[in-house]
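To illustrate the input format used throughout this study, we show a single complete record. The first block contains the structure-token representation of the backbone; no residue identities are included at this stage. The design step must infer an amino acid for every position from geometry alone.
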């Protein structure tokens, strides 16, 4: 009778702990998590299985950013399962400790506890965050992913693609991408980003092969930037048509890429039209338009654009100033050059050698 009552009491306490710890996870309440921890230390853990509660406690600690206490709870657990390891690993990568994350993962692997897909997502994130982690580490982890049958998980494939592209392994990334049969928009964004960084020549064929997925702002910005580098107006016009239907044209990064594509294709009027459609413009928007005018042989238009930028309340950066000075040099206009020089003096230490060279050229 007494034993039954004691077990019932423990069950009630455990239920309360679970409820409180779930609340701690939701609202990141570190103080409450520590209170539950203190009570758990006083409770006889021999009488019932507290592993589920300890996993929740670790989760509460790492969610609150306290990975030290989370690790202490983990180390004192007599028995750990995949949830225990995964929660702690995810906490360390979220806190910004990629080296420690990978070290924990190897400890888990040595403990003979089989990782799940959530474990792999966290450890691949750690590999992508830390440039100090050699590519061989990510390759070993992905080999284990294949061995355990998780290679069909698109989240893991996308994480691995990011790592390969970060390390300049575009050919290997293409192989992994082609071997993935359930690609999503993140997969395509990753490979388009690789094309943009290392081989824009692939961009056109990539766009044509892209299935009827719904592109996002990153897709449009990346693809248009790549097409701008290629001066590929034909494909750029098709992408622009899709962009109009998508509603992403108002995004500043997309608008800037679209303007750049038209300018690199020597379509100045279309560049102006694209700029006019942008609801928000930053210094890059105005500067690339001014530079495009100069390259197109319209220095007066370039000065007008810079003047309009200043009236809009957007301050110049070093590239704006260099462009302005090159415009004045092109026009042999000392008066306008002196005005730009005044802006250079106001900007002070933020200018660099490209402005100094343009200033010398103007005078």
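Output of the design step:
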């Amino acid at each position: 009778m007494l034993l039954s009552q004691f077990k019932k009491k423990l069950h009630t306490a455990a239920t309360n702990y679970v409820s409180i710890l779930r609340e701690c996870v939701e609202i990141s309440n570190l103080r409450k998590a520590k209170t539950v921890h203190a009570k758990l230390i006083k409770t006889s853990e021999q009488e019932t299985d507290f592993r589920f509660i300890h996993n929740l406690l670790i989760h509460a600690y790492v969610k609150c950013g306290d990975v030290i206490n989370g690790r202490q709870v983990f180390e004192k657990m007599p028995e750990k399962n995949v949830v225990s390891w995964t929660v702690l690993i995810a906490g360390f990568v979220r806190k910004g400790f990629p080296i420690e994350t990978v070290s924990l993962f190897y400890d888990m692997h040595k403990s003979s506890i089989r990782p799940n897909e959530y474990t792999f997502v966290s450890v691949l994130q750690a590999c992508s965050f830390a440039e100090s982690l050699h590519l061989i580490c990510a390759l070993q982890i992905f080999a284990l992913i294949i061995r355990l049958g998780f290679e069909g998980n698109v989240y893991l494939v996308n994480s691995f693609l990011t790592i390969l592209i970060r390390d300049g392994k575009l050919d290997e990334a293409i192989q992994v991408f082609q071997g993935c049969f359930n690609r999503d928009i993140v997969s395509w964004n990753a490979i388009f980003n690789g094309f943009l960084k290392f081989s824009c020549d692939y961009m056109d064929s990539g766009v044509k092969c892209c299935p009827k997925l719904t592109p996002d702002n990153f897709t449009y910005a990346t693809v248009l930037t790549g097409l701008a580098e290629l001066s590929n107006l034909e494909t750029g016009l098709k992408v622009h048509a899709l962009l109009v239907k998508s509603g992403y044209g108002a995004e500043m990064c997309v608008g800037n890429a679209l303007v750049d594509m038209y300018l690199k294709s020597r379509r100045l009027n279309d560049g102006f039209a694209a700029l006019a459609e942008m609801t928000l413009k930053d210094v890059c928007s105005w500067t690339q338009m001014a530079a495009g005018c100069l390259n197109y042989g319209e220095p007066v238009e370039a000065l007008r654009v810079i003047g309009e930028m200043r009236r809009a309340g957007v301050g110049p950066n070093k590239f704006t100033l260099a462009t302005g000075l090159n415009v004045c040099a092109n026009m042999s206009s000392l008066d306008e050059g002196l005005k730009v020089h005044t802006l250079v003096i106001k900007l002070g230490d933020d200018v660099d050698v490209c402005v100094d060279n343009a200033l010398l050229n103007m005078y």
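Structural context for interpreting the output: DSSP finds 21 helices and no strands in the chain. Residues 1-12 have pLDDT under 50 and may be disordered.
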